[in-house]
Amino acid sequence: MTISEMLTRNAILYPNDTVLIELRPSKQLRKEIIWREFNERANRVANALMDRGIGKGDKVIHLMMNSINWLEAYFGIIRTGAWAVPLSFRFTSQDIKYCADIAEAKSMILGEEFTEKVEVIRSQLTTIKNYIFVGKNLPEDMEDFEDAIDNTSSRPAEIEISAHDECGLYFTSGTTGEPKPILLTHQNMESAAIVEQSHHYQTHEDNFVLLPPLYHTGAKMHWFGSLIVGGRATILTEISPQNIFKAVHNERGTIVWLLVPWAQDILGAMDRGELKKEEYDLSCWRLMHIGAQPVPPSLIKRWKGYFPEMQYDTNYGLSESTGPGCVHLGIENENKVGAIGKAGFGWETRIVNDSGEDVAQGEVGELVVRGNGMMKEYYKNPQKTAETIKNGWLYTGDMARMDSEGFIYLVDRKKDVVITGGENIYPVEVEDVLQSHPKIYDVAVIGIPDERLGEIAVAVIDQHPGETLTKEEINLFCEQSLPCHKRPRRIIFDKVPRNPTGKIEKPKLRQKYSGAS
Asked: Within the chain, which residues score under 70 in pLDDT?
C-alpha cells in the first residue's frame, strides 16, 4: 500500500477526524484539516498539475516552509506519478538552480518566503513551464495555489502507480559539497511508514508534534508511522522550548521527535527556571526520540531526570535509507543509551572493513545496511551509486562498532576521523565526553592540518549562556576524562554551526579554522 493509498484509506475510515493542525504562535494562528478534506485537496493539487501538463516521471520542485499546504502539495505531486523534489529552505538561489537543472523540473510550487531567491534565477530556469505560488503578493506570471486547486476536480487522478515507481528526488543538505540527488520510490516510502510504526507503536489516538523541516527525509517519514494508522500531527512552525511545551499541552501531543539542540534548549531553559514543566499538562507526552546526529548519553540522562516516566528512543538513518529507522535503539533498551541500537524492522546491518569483510565483534568498521528503504540510486550519478551500493548493501560512510549484545555504537563519519601521529581519533567519542561538562552547551571536534603530526584534534566549544569557561578548565577536564592521545590539542570558543536537521557542519569549521593557531 503506497502512502497515497494510506491517505485515501484514512479519508474513508476517518473522514471527519482531524489529520493535521498547524500552529503559528507569533500570529496566534491555528488551522486544522480533516482527513476527507486533506484527501480531496491532494486530489485537486494532482488534477491542477495534470491540467498543466505534469505526468508520470515529470519532476516538480517543492519549495515551501512547513505547513498544511506543504503536505497537500506533496501528496498531490506524487498522485500524478510525478516526482516530488523538495528543497531545503536554506538553499541559495544557485543551489535551487543546480537542483532544478539536475531534475529538469517542469513545474515549481513555492511559498512566498522564496520569491526573491527564485526571481533572481527565474530567467535561467528554462525547463520550468509554470509556477504555483502559495501566499500573498502573487508575482507576475505565477498562479495562485488556491485559485489553481479551486478550479479543478477533487476526483482521484486515474494514474497507475506501482511500488517500484519513483516518487521523490531528495537533495542532501550540501554540508559536504554540492547537494547529491537521492532517488526514492513508492516502496521506499511505504517501508518508512511500516518501520516507524513498528518501532514506536503509533495508534490512531496519537498526535505527532512535527518540528523539523518537511523537505528532509526525517520528520515526514516519522509522521508516516502515524499516517499508516490514521494518527494526526501538529505542525509547529516556530520552535522554542515554550512553544513546544504549549503545543504538547494544548493539542495533547503524544510523540515529539527532537534534534539535539532543541533538547538542549529545553533542558537549559528548565535548568535556569525559565521553563517550568509544572505549569503545563504534559502527561499525554509518552515518547521523545532523537535522531539525525549522534546523541550524547549525558543529554538523555539529564532528560530522564526531568521526565523519568517518558519513553525514549534513538533513531539512526540517512536520506539514502529513506530517513530514520534502519537502526534504532528501541524504547525497551534505555539502559543502552549511547548505542544507536540494532537493525530496524525489516533491515539488516553489518560492520565491514575496507575490503567489505565483516570485522570482529568490538572492532571499528564501516556500517552497511540493507532493506526496502534503500534508495534506488544517486540520480544521474552511476559512479557515486556504485561506490555507495555494493552487492546489495548500502555503505553509510559511518564508522561503528558492535558490542557483545549486538548493539551498534556510532564512532564517527569515515571522512571525519582525525589521524594524529598515526592514531585514529573518533570525534564523536570526544564530543560525548565534552558534552557531559555542565558548562558546555554544544561542541564539535574536527581535525586540522599539522606539520608534525599530520592532523590534530581541535574542539570548538559553545558554552551555556551566562557561564564562564576557560581553556584551562577544559584541558583539566580532558586530562581527567580522556586518554592522552584523544585529548584536543586546541580549544576554540565559538558557535557550533548546524544545518536544519541538526547535523554539525564540520566542513565549515575545518575551512574556518584550518589555519588557526
From this structure: 173-177, 293, 421-422, 451-452, 501, 515-517
The CATH code of the domain that includes 74 is 3.40.50.980
pLDDT at 177: 55
Q: Is residue 34 part of a domain?
A: yes
Going by the DSSP 8-state scheme, the letter that residue 64 receives in this structure is -
Backbone angles phi, psi at 7, to 5 degrees: -65, -45
Decide which of 185, 209, 240 is a domain's last residue: 185
In terms of DSSP H, where are the helices of 354-482?
382-388, 427-435, 471-481
**185, 210, 238: which is the final residue of a domain?**
185
Q: Is 390 a member of any domain? A: no
What's 478's domain CATH number? Answer: 3.30.300.30
* Residue 428 φ/ψ, nearest 5 degrees: -60, -40
330 is a domain residue: no
pLDDT of res. 175: 41
The gap from C-alpha 432 to its chain's centroid, in whole angstroms, comes to: 21
Residue 491 belongs to some domain of the structure: yes
Residue 270: other Cβ atoms inside 10 A: 18
What is the predicted pLDDT for the residue at 502? 72
Look at residue 176 in the predicted model and tell me its pLDDT.
Answer: 44
Give 482-489 contacts, CB < 8 A, sequence gap 24+: 482/430, 482/433, 485/420, 485/421, 485/423, 485/425, 486/425, 486/429, 486/430, 486/457, 487/430, 487/457, 488/430, 488/445, 488/456, 488/457, 488/458, 488/459, 489/420, 489/450, 489/456, 489/457, 489/458
CB burial readout 219-257, b (16+ within 10 A) else e: bbbbbbbbbbbbbbbbbbbebebebbbbbbbebbbbbbb
- Residue 175 domain boundaries: 30-185
How high is the pLDDT of residue 512? 87
User: CA-CA distances (angstroms) from residue 448 to 32, 393, 438?
Assistant: 50, 32, 26
Distance between CA 393 and CA 402 in Å, rounded? 18
Q: Structurally, how many domains does the chain consist of? A: 2
Q: Are 128 and 96 in contact (CB under 8 A)?
A: no
Could you tell me where the DSSP H helices lie in 283-408? 297-306, 382-388
Q: Where does 231-390 show beta strands of DSSP type E?
A: 232-236, 255-258, 287-290, 311-318, 323-328, 342-343, 348-352, 365-370, 377-378, 389-390
Residue 428 CA from chain centroid, whole number: 19
Distance (Å, rounded) from C-alpha 461 to C-alpha 434?
A: 9
pLDDT in tens, 361-400: 999 999 999 999 999 999 999 999 999 999 999 999 888 9
